[in-house]
Amino acid sequence: MQKGVGGVEDMAEELGIYVFCCIQTNEEKSFGTIEFEGEERSIFTIHYKDAAMVATEAPVKIYTPKKDHLMTHQNVISRVMESESSVVPISFGNVFQTREDTEVLLENLYPQLARLFPEVENKIEIGLKVVGKKEWLEDEVNKNNKVMKQKETVSSKSEDAGYFDRIKLGEMAQDFFNNLKTEIEKDIHTPLVRLSESSKSNETVGEKMLLNGAYLIDRGNEQAFDEKVNELHERWKDRVEFKYTGPWPAYNFINIKLKVEETS
Question: HSE on the CB side for 64, CA within 13 Å?
Fold first, then answer.
């Protein structure tokens, strides 16, 4: 029997089990209630050995990743993190028809969870995005003689005649920003890596973002990490903006994306 969402319309109002994350515990636990799909719903645990799925009853349907849906999912996980030391996040939008189906899923995941629980115990993820200030970036470009000369070359030619010059200008601009990213990586990312259990430098978004870092740190090291971020911000605050977020569960360091259609 198929245990996940199969797109069958007559199941739209049937209540199933929506899952948020896994924790390591032998005790049945409650995490209060939350507004979910227009109703106040209890958050409870479903168990297999010392692993427990944090879940709620919800309609069996396809959940679209709208902002309010994603926030609800994240808010539940954040609440669980306040009292639990080993939290393994589950990707958004997974709902199963029955508790029994969820127990089967948990049993299938157990070997993976048994390995992950020690890895994430007392660990939190911190995010840091570094975005260049427009004025500073413009000043840096203006200081680059090669780029400025190429801009003059492009502006002195017609659109057709300057086609390859514009391509070259684009390549030079890309090299310029890559050099800035390398400098940020060395001066900001590397010192934070030294304070982390694990780290990732994710793909940046947009021209002005120079770093998109994720850091897995021990809870006991959070103050030292905060102090280092503040120190780096003081050094760079006239040139860049810091977007510092967390604590989160280890999203960037754990990849459990349930494929409910494969659990039959």
Answer: 2
Closest listed residue to residue 103, CA positions, set 153, 45, 148: 45
Q: Predicted confidence band at 217 (pLDDT cuts at 50, 70, 90)?
A: very high
- The 10 Å Cβ neighbour count of residue 171 is 11
Dist. CA 50–CA 22, nearest whole Å: 10
Over residues 132-145, the pLDDT tens digits come to: 888 887 777 666 55
Three-state DSSP at 94 gives coil
| 124 has pLDDT over 80 | yes
Q: How many angstroms separate the CA atoms of 208 and 133, rounded?
A: 7
Residue 226 tokens read as 């905060």
Q: Are 22 and 51 in contact (CB under 8 A)?
A: yes
CA distance 51 to 47: 6
Strands 123-132 and 240-248: antiparallel
Residue whose tokens read 């057709």 = 160
Sorted by sequence, the CB contacts under 8 Å of residue 241 that are 6+ apart come out as 130, 131, 133
In this structure, what is the dihedral angle of CA atoms 31, 35, 40, 41, given to the nearest 10 degrees? -40
Calpha distance 224→260 (Å, rounded) = 41
DSSP state of 174: H
Residue count of the chain, please give it: 264
SS3 state of residue 107: helix
Give the integer Cα–Cα distance in Å for 192 and 196: 6
Which run of H or of E encompasses 34? strand 30-36
Which of 98, 118, 100 has the alpha carbon at shortest distance from 108? 100
How far apart CA 128 and CA 70 sit, in angstroms, is: 20
**Cβ atoms of 43 and 34 closer than 8 Å:** yes
How much is the pTM? 0.74
